[in-house]
Design a protein that fits this description.
Largest sheet: 7 strands, antiparallel
Mean pLDDT: 79
Structural class: alpha+beta
Length: 193
């Protein structure tokens, strides 16, 4: 009897050691409304339980298994709105591209996407995007796209022309105000109005 109970306890211990529980701080948002209200669904990436962090697994996986109310579902990555890791980073999945949110607490949200090389010898390209709020579509971070997104704010368009020479200046970070330069300019324009 003692041997059976020792074996049973040992078996339970090894079973629990191999099952990886997802931290409560990471998961996925299925829709924009889930993202707005903070309804985070817990997920595993694929069928294997790797030793990688869940954030890494979720950001790279094409399929998710969701456990709302302990029922498992398989979801295609294109049906996921955003991924959140325990580090606090948020990745929006938009048109099949992972956009890493760089400034969740600012007015104009800026995203960074790493574009993998198409052929051998090419380098990874960095693509920046923006959205006017957390649920709107992500557009390329260009002066023309910003002006088009803020047509109802002509002062901001003038301020963009005055502060930025070309598109590569738009993703600069202002260390003194601890925000992206684009958002500093936007705040300045909004405070005048």
């Amino acid at each position: 009897m003692k041997k059976i109970s020792v074996l049973l306890i040992t078996g339970i211990f090894f079973y629990l050691a191999t099952v990886q529980a997802q931290p409560a701080c990471s998961g996925i948002y299925l829709t924009a409304s889930d993202f707005i209200v903070g309804r985070l669904y817990y997920a595993c990436a694929g069928r294997s339980m790797s030793k990688e962090s869940y954030y890494d697994l979720l950001a790279k996986s094409h399929f998710f298994i969701i456990r709302p109310d302990y029922a498992w579902r398989r979801i295609d990555k294109k049906d996921v709105f955003a991924i959140k890791g325990c580090e606090g980073q948020i990745v929006r999945v938009f048109q099949g591209i992972n956009y890493y949110l760089l400034n969740p607490d600012e007015n104009i949200l800026i995203y960074k996407a790493l574009m993998n090389p198409v052929s051998k010898g090419n380098v990874i390209k960095v693509k920046y995007g923006f959205s006017i709020d957390s649920v709107s579509e992500i557009k390329d971070l260009t002066i023309d796209n910003l002006k088009a997104a803020f047509l109802n704010n002509p002062r901001f368009g003038v301020a963009i022309n005055a502060n930025f020479k070309d598109d590569s200046d738009l993703n600069s970070y202002n260390k003194m105000s601890k925000c992206f330069e684009l958002n500093r300019v936007y705040k300045d324009v909004e405070s005048i109005q």
